[in-house]
Amino acid sequence: MSLNNASQDLADFIQASPTPFHAAQSLAERLRAAGYQQLDERDEWVLDDDGRYFVLRNQSSLIAFSLGQLETLQSAGLRMIGAHTDSPCLRVKPQPERNRHGLWQLGVEVYGGALLAPWFDRDLSLAGRVTCRDGSGQLHNLLIDFKRPIAIIPSLAIHLNRDVNSGFAVNAQTDLPPVLAHSIEPGRDLRALLASEVTTQYPEREPMQVLDYELSFYDTQPPAVLGLDNDFLAAARLDNLLSCHAGLTALLNSDADQACLLVCTDHEEVGSSSACGADGPFLEDVLKRLLPDEIERIRAIQRSVLVSADNAHAIHPNYADRHDGNHGPQLNAGPVIKINSNQRYATTSETAALFRHLCQQVDVPVQSFVVRSDMGCGSTIGPITSSRLGVRTVDIGAPTFAMHSIRELAGCRDVEYLITVLTAFCNCSEV
């Protein structure tokens, strides 16, 4: 895949994935198109050598795997790539309706560690999962996406807040409810609006009652390649759909000789502690079904390696002092190995060396990141998965600016670099 094609394909993936539910659906659609067979955790699994499969949990987390030959799985283990489907955002509350001063608003809850200031004055839409009941009393989980701009969070004019440019603390309760409409029409009800949208998006289905929902606001501005030399990709949810896309592309590009697995889980931005998160049993449950014998499973895991892929902080030219002087990754200079002696990242010297070796083999530049010693360090699914499974792990990621903003920035060359090295990892028979 060429540089331009890689960035455009990532942009298309992001545009189709405004929520974790849509991201998992996008992954599943691409896997089906490549011949992967969907499994159901409630069924008995009969897996073939050379089989290619995927399984969804909660419609927001996905595991896909290509088995290769059974003896290869047992003798060489799995090449695993981990990422997450969720991103910081604004989630709609259960009883969100607000009618204030002639305007209809929805109350929101901040999901994850979002940069809040960039959410103001954006053209917002709404997407997510709704749970409905049909006329016979059956429940259905359906994904919806309004797609068009239906909301905005207007800034307060500088005339009414003269000190705003000296610092503005956003109050998540009072400052963030988006404006959707005039409240001239009495008794506006979100569930009725959602029911109407379900009928529009699923015309083949009978009208249904919306019982509950998990909805997120998102920016409708599409991804864009920008810069004088088209060096950069600006988009929402680069953290961490960039890694989901790179892992999926690597899996599909691999030669399928080596057993490979892609795990993309929800709820990383809020700690991963859920039935479908990295701190839940999803991956372990799947591995138990791939390798039912406990001893053989332990042996295979000890021959395996996990690449935990999650974006890294590139050195910002206006804030270079926020980085350690010797560890300032640059955009378009290759994937970043993330290291923390306090185990916020799971990288070891062994796994870092393996990743560097792979990068050298495919002529991909590689960088390192260590947080300043006087600053706190974020974390990833790497330490969680490594500690639950006992699998060797390296934490890496594409360098980005504005992480957790409504619009983030990455280097176009880094998209291709990450796909290239992850494909080499999937094809690596000895680690």
From TrEMBL:
GO terms for molecular function: aminopeptidase activity; metallopeptidase activity; zinc ion binding. SUPFAM superfamilies: Aminopeptidase/glucanase lid domain, Zn-dependent exopeptidases. The keyword Disulfide bond does not apply. Its cofactor is Zn(2+). Zn(2+) binds at H84, H159, H404. One of its GO terms (biological process) is proteolysis. GO terms for cellular component: cytoplasm. Its EC number is 3.4.11.-. NCBIfam families: PRK02813.1. This is Probable M18 family aminopeptidase 2. It comes from Halopseudomonas litoralis. The lineage of its organism: Bacteria, Pseudomonadati, Pseudomonadota, Gammaproteobacteria, Pseudomonadales.
